[in-house]
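Exercise 7.
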Amino acid sequence: MKNIILLGPPGAGKGTQGKTLSERFNIPQISTGDILRENFRNKTPLGLEAKGYMDRGVLVPNGIVVGMVVERINQDDCSTGVILDGFPRNIAQAEALDATLNKMGKKIDVAVGIGVEKKELVRRLSGRRVCRKCGANYHVIYSPPMNIGVCDQCGSEIHQRDDDREETIMARLKVYDEETLPLVDYYKNRGLYVAVNGIGGVDQISTSIIEIIEKGSNNT
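Solution. The predicted structure, written as tokens, is:
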């Protein structure tokens, strides 16, 4: 069983690496965004409760978020492990997750921190573009469309999302530093944290993470 946490700031590549790890170890990749959308779509009690908070423009309480994640972890396809992509987001969520997993006879095996300099994070996030119609993703530097502003897939307009604008990115990174970065010490103190350089080719970074997971975690 492998229960893996991927930590790192927005733009570090957690989603990309999570997908690779999911395929490599044949365990599901779980993100709070996906879980929230699924609960909204299925109109579950937790989903409806979370939507009430979001409609009022306030953060969804830790208890609801953790409850959704735990419900997901309890599903059959998670019996051999999970990849938690960007969760937990703060110490309170981490403590609640540990307590709940302990009751289930499960535990976190390793927390992998993907490190990327702030300047590079801004370049990655501010360069992202998405098609308004089909949702195809592009990047003005790394994977631009063949024609500027036009989707290769459907010919519709591509645009920059509001949360990928530089001022919003800096605000998101500030929140990460204040709320999520303390998790590095939290998992270091448990001998679970391992840092990985997030600069380089996707395959190179994946190889480093896979080696760490297969060898087991070491306190760094």
